[in-house]
Amino acid sequence: MQLCYTPSVIAYTILLRIYGQAGKLNLAEEAFMDMLEVGCEPDEVACHTMICAYARWRYNDDMLSFYSTVRKRGILLSPTFYNYMIASLHKASMYVDALQLWEDMTMAGLKPNHFTYTLVIDLYSKEGRTDEALTVFREMRSTGLVPKETTYNIVINMIVRQGLQEDALYLFNDMRSRGIVPSNYTCASLLNLCYKTGHYQHALSIFSEMQVNKIDADEVIYSILISVYGKLGLYEHAEKTFKEMEQIGLLTHEKTYVAMARVYMKAGSYDKALNILENMQENNVMFSKFALSALLHCHVMRRSVESAEMTFQTMLTSGFLDKVAYSNMLNLYMNEGLIEQAKELIIKLRESSMEFDKELYGSIINVYCKAGMIRDAELLVKEMEVNGMLADQILKTNLMQVYGEAGRLQDVKQVFESLEHPDSVALGLMLYFKRRYGCEDDAKVLHKKLLDTSNGVSMSNHLILRFIKEGEIDKAESLWNEIVELGFSPNDFAHSSLISFYGKRKQLGKALNVFQAISSSGSSPGKMVYNSIIDAYAECGKLEDANCLFKEMEEQGHSPDSVLISSMVKAFTQHGKFKEAEGLIRKSTEAEIVLDQIAYNTFIKAKLDEGKLKEAVELYNDMKAAGIVPSLQTYNTMISVYGKARELQNAVQIFNSLQKSGLSIDEKAYSNMISCYGKADSIQYPSRCICQVRAAYQSRGSFH
Length: 704
Description:
The longest helix is centred in the first third of the chain and has 14 residues, at about 10-20. Helix 6 (about 95-105) packs across helix 7 (about 115-125) and helix 8 runs antiparallel to helix 9. The protein is built from 40 helices and no strands. With about 700 residues, the protein is mainly alpha-helical.
């Protein structure tokens, strides 16, 4: 007898699960169709079993099609089934479809759980829909659900990518207040954000908390920390961190090496920076565009033209050249005065397909200005403006400089008037060229505007020094007087330069007027000013006055340096005041003042003139012991010292040392040696020695 049996939905569901687990999706679909044909209505569990089978074997399109059919049949799925589908689509990067399921779920009034919210927030984050992600996050918290570590990490990292530091730090603090420890990745993201936004102390606080919570720091985090230390000027901390990384084997990526190299460059230690990058190459860490750019910058800062050119060529061959590399090379050539090389590079740059930015335009215009190529600079400025980039104040001041040097004062004025808010540099240039070319209309008004700007007084002082250097003392005096009249104070450089100028020309009255004007203004002369006025008195033979000022200077707390003492000793010696010179030399020795080559030469010469030859020799020995290289003047003086003492053998030794020194021997050295031989006993020192010196002298073509 044959039994008639109609399977229930439970039996079909078991069969669907078996087929699904085995990956027999075709058989599962046939079984599902058979269930429908026999009139067995599938329930939620049967539908979920099919959905799980599709998801498990990544048949996501079939899953979505099946889901659409289920909805049409009015079957309501549970939040668990939606979670499963959304997770499957999330894993397959089908974010739009996954978010559509989320909308269906919310429309159906189903209640999401932790897992759902975290998935959806991440989906919105990956789609770049920050506002929607934050709305879902706030909704999650409003339901009483406390976000877990994963959820916080997703939201914080999303906010970090948007550069919203305050919001990111707020969530970070909220996370910590709930006792949730952030992940290594979240800490790295926050550290990087703090670094990029210049909040370096926040970065250090985050790193400290990582240490407290025993969150392992990887190479990325250490690399950011090194950069932060560099920005704060904590170079030793950066160096210590780098060495610790090296010891524990964390140095594997070029970014860490480059970070340390940049720290050294910021500290001005370019050789150390180069050493780091060379170590990177020795450790077989590949050089990308990032590392090569740092290497080029390092060579540029070291002003090593040959090495920079080699690195530039490597970047060219590798296809890594960019605007920054061209700007670096142009600036290097200009700093080294290599105008032709800069012009050749510009030609190659113009022939390339490189798109110019404002900085690159500026570098090229700077070259043209320095080279006096005014027409080319003007054309490039117009090209720049056509491309939507307006010339900034730096470019315009460069043009003012080149127009001024070419005598085109009207063009200088035109460019100057185009500046909306001229700074001290532009005002200084305009004032300089007006005074240089004798255009005094509103010059004093312009000077007042300059002095009212930040750095204006400094710029005005610079102009005084420039005019003094150019020998335009009347213009320098005029500027100095105007500064005083307008209620400002020239700095010590300006005072000192004017006093020195007057002193050298024996115009002691004018020098004294400048010095007295300092006291009249209520200020006290600085060490530099005292040096100049004392030197001016000495130059004019007013040694007693110079000595009085010297003592006054010491009473004011200014310690004399080797330059001033040398100047005073020289003046005393020239006027036969050997006792005073002797006192100063002794005083400088007792005070342990570090003497330079000029000071030693002056002291030795003073001892020679005074006839204290033994002390002259002692000073010479002290000079060598201090590691100071003797000059030609030193050798000549010592030959005279030994000649006067009739110690010919020692004089010969000094002369031999002079020959080995590589210095160009002058007429005086030969004359001194001949004089030494002439003073010697002719029996002890035959005349052939004198002939040898004469022969050497004649071979130089200088003997008459």
